């Protein structure tokens, strides 16, 4: 009887394992292309083989560079080169249906994100240096902006910091604060968020965090614990570990280079930053050096570089790690393709697996 029970258990386990191995995870790719390939691509990643399949494309907005999926996975939002932010519904087949658009309230939008409650989105306009926040309707449509701010200021890099350049915005995991990077002034703006009423107010405890002059803060990622923040500096090619204290105040801990000190190739600018789903590792991409660098998050919030890979990586504007933590998908902007890496969830190290499908000028990878 025991043998039969064990056999049954093993059969069930094998079915579960096969089911998991055969599972595919959908993701969306944004593009910087303004021509015939100007579309959001729906792809699937096979968790057994690491193979990527292109499922469909959606040509509803011009150069939908950055996309963001709502927490309920029923809506997707995209910025476009015609200075708009658009809403889409996600169907049962993961295909997109256009809902509506709103002005981005600035020029050159480069990033959009959704707050944890799914009630608001935030748009950063790199070209004009403006930031805007919007409430969302019950069906996911975007209402007119409820908050707008035109940033001012500049930095010591005369070519890249001649004025404000809002680059990225994200809410804290608890939905209490919103942080916006301004590459032009080396600041991270800090707001208190009231998503229920669609309101933002400058944080009285710290209206902004000042980074190193000339570093050029681009993107940041907040640990799920809400206690650590990792700030990627595009111009300096560095990563700053920070703490988030009481009242949402950011404090820098230590800064680390993201490329070798002896690098003397083409000018390098850092681009994207993502956490491993297990919360133990943080990864960043470098354009010029053309690499992905991996760091282990230490108990005290500091970092330790554990790996750096360059194979088949070319202008990695973005990359992302699938929710299972098994694969990394790298978006090569200059070679118009996606590359897959295996990731070791125990060590954080990663290894080249295969070059995958072609996508025109991919600049964002968002898993569903």
UniProtKB/TrEMBL annotation:
GO terms for biological process: glucose metabolic process. GO terms for cellular component: cytosol. Belongs to the cycloisomerase 2 family. One of its GO terms (molecular function) is 6-phosphogluconolactonase activity. This is Lactonase family protein. Keywords: Carbohydrate metabolism, Glucose metabolism, Signal. The keyword Signal applies. The keyword Signal applies. It comes from the Bacteria. InterPro entries: Cycloisomerase_2, Haem_d1_sf, Lactonase_7-beta_prop, WD40/YVTN_repeat-like_dom_sf. PANTHER family: 6-PHOSPHOGLUCONOLACTONASE, 6-PHOSPHOGLUCONOLACTONASE-RELATED. Residues 1-20 form the signal peptide. SUPFAM superfamilies: C-terminal (heme d1) domain of cytochrome cd1-nitrite reductase. Pfam families: Lactonase.
């Amino acid at each position: 009887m025991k043998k039969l029970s064990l056999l049954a258990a093993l059969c069930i386990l094998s079915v579960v394992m096969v089911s998991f191995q055969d599972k595919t995870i959908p993701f969306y790719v944004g593009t910087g292309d303004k021509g015939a390939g100007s579309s959001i691509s729906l792809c699937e990643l096979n968790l057994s083989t690491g193979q990527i399949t292109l499922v469909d494309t959606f040509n509803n907005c011009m150069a939908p560079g950055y996309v963001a999926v709502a927490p309920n996975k029923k809506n997707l939002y995209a910025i476009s080169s015609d200075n708009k932010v658009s809403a889409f519904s996600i169907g049962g087949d993961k295909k997109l249906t256009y809902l509506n658009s709103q002005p981005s309230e600035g020029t050159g939008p480069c990033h959009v994100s959704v707050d944890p409650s799914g009630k608001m989105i935030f748009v950063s306009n790199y070209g004009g240096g403006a930031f805007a926040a919007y409430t969302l309707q019950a069906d996911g449509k975007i209402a007119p902006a409820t908050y707008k701010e035109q940033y001012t200021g500049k930095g010591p890099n005369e070519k890249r910091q001649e004025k404000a350049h809002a680059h990225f915005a994200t809410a804290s995991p608890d939905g209490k604060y919103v942080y916006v990077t301004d590459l032009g002034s080396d600041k991270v703006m800090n707001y208190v968020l009231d998503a229920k009423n669609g309101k933002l107010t400058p944080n009285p405890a710290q209206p902004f965090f000042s980074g190193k002059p000339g570093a050029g803060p681009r993107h940041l990622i907040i640990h799920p614990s809400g206690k650590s923040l990792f700030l990627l500096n595009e111009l300096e090619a560095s990563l700053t570990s920070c703490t988030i204290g009481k009242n949402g105040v950011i404090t820098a801990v230590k800064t680390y280079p993201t490329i070798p000190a002896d690098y003397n190739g083409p000018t390098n600018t850092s681009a994207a930053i993502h956490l491993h789903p297990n919360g133990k590792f943080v990864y960043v991409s470098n354009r010029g050096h053309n690499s992905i660098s991996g760091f282990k998050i230490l108990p005290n919030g500091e970092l330790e570089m554990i790996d750096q890979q360059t194979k088949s990586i070319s202008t990695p504007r973005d990359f992302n790690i699938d929710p299972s933590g098994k694969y990394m998908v790298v978006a090569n902007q200059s070679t118009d393709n996606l590359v897959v890496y295996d990731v070791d969830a125990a060590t954080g190290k990663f290894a080249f697996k295969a070059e995958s499908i072609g996508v025109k000028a991919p600049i964002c990878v968002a898993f569903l």
